[in-house]
Design goal:
The protein starts with a strand and ends in a 10-residue tail after the last helix. The longest helix has 11 residues. It is of the alpha/beta class. Strand 2, helix 2 and strand 3 form a beta-alpha-beta unit. It contains 4 helices and 3 strands. It is globular and about 35 Å long.
């Protein structure tokens, strides 16, 4: 499962990590949580605090993010229930021509 984004509360990283921890017993034993974020150390600490001690946290250049996302099996975009988030679209990952 992959989380890709920043660590602001509105981006729901704690909820995503908690969801992974809850789903993990139902996933293949080799299932891992991948955290793609600019603040690797803080992401690792969030995962550890939630009871996920084997997450993989990386900062990637924007040009590599789409390949990393495609290599993962499950990706979720959790957001607070606000008007902005109901109308938002993740359009930052476009390839330059």
């Amino acid at each position: 499962m992959v989380y890709c984004g920043g660590l602001s509360d509105w981006q729901c990283i704690r909820e995503a990590v908690g969801l992974f921890r809850q789903l993990r017993p139902y996933l293949h034993p080799s299932a891992r949580l991948m955290l793609i974020t600019p603040d690797v150390a803080s992401a690792e600490n969030i995962a550890l605090a939630a009871g996920v001690d084997d997450s993989i946290a990386r900062m990637l250049p924007p040009a590599e993010v789409h390949r990393a996302l495609a290599a993962c099996d499950i990706g979720l975009m959790l957001r607070e229930a606000t008007l902005t988030n109901h109308c938002a679209f993740p359009n930052r990952l476009r390839k330059n021509a």
